[in-house]
Recover the amino acids of this structure.
């Protein structure tokens, strides 16, 4: 008899990759934007 | 359209649109993924792995949409010389790369239980991998052009030439024999049951909103960096 593969670990791994990558992308772009705009404000005040 | 090429007008719009797109995108994508993970029934043939389409398909669409955005913005830059178009092209590169890589990884994870292999060198998978490499090359080229003060025309031409790969990815499953299934959704037609199609379209909408928000955030960051550099340079010249 052929043993069936448990598919849930694959589903969970795929969702984890997508969720971590998306959240990291959003956090990185948001932080980089705030840093760059703060740098511009500092340059303006100098 | 030309009105938004004015950085001041663009910033006025982007200031409220960026958090709105990101927050609504996270909410819609989160809801769609929860729906896909917990409420959708397993597929008759694919079983539980059908749930991976709710992230794999939107990631594939956005990976290709990112390069299409680079190509359109590059064309606008080359024809009308709008500096904001060059910034928009650069801003689409990192999110495009992230979604192309997510598409490749989730596709590979889906392939193992479905096809019995993590990877095959067929037209669809290979052209998608080429797209990821094109993104890396474009990002390196755009950064080098900015650092060396070279014209943004070089990355813009590369962005236009790289767009040749988009129809190749799209038609690869039609042109060549492939393990990858043919397109399930075409203009106005779908071979997917509504139980899967509705959360899939919702996930695509959510990830697209996130993509738009990230592009705006990257544009604001690149624009602010450029303005800060210009101001510091001007002040240094005044001090001499």
């Amino acid at each position: 008899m052929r043993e069936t593969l448990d598919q849930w670990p694959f589903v969970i791994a795929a969702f984890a990759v997508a969720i971590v990558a998306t959240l990291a992308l959003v956090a990185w772009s948001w932080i980089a934007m705030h840093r760059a705009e703060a740098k511009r404000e500092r340059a303006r005040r100098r | 359209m030309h009105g938004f090429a004015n950085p001041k007008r663009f910033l006025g719009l982007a200031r409220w649109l960026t958090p709105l797109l990101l927050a609504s995108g996270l909410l819609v994508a989160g809801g769609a993924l929860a729906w896909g993970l917990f409420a959708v029934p397993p597929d008759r043939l694919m079983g539980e792995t059908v749930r991976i389409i709710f992230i794999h398909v939107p990631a594939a669409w956005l990976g290709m949409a990112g390069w299409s955005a680079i190509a359109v913005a590059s064309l606008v830059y080359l024809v009308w010389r709008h500096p904001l178009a060059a910034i928009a092209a650069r801003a689409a590169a990192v999110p495009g790369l992230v979604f192309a890589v997510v598409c490749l990884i989730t596709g590979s994870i889906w392939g193992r239980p479905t096809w019995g292999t993590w990877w095959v060198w067929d037209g669809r998978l290979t052209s998608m991998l080429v797209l990821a490499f094109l993104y890396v090359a474009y990002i390196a080229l755009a950064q080098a052009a900015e650092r060396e003060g070279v014209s943004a025309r070089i990355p813009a031409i590369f962005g236009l030439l790289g767009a040749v790969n988009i129809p190749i990815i799209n038609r690869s499953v039609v042109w060549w024999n492939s393990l990858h299934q043919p397109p399930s959704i075409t203009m106005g037609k779908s071979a997917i049951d509504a139980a899967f199609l509705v959360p899939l379209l919702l996930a695509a909408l959510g990830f697209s909103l996130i993509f738009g928000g990230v592009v705006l955030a990257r544009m604001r960051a690149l624009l602010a960096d450029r303005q800060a550099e210009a101001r510091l340079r001007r002040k240094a010249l005044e001090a001499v």
Observations:
- Chain A has one helix and no strands.
- Chain A has a mean pLDDT of 91.
- The radius of gyration of chain A is 21 Å.
- The longest helix of chain A spans residues 8-45.
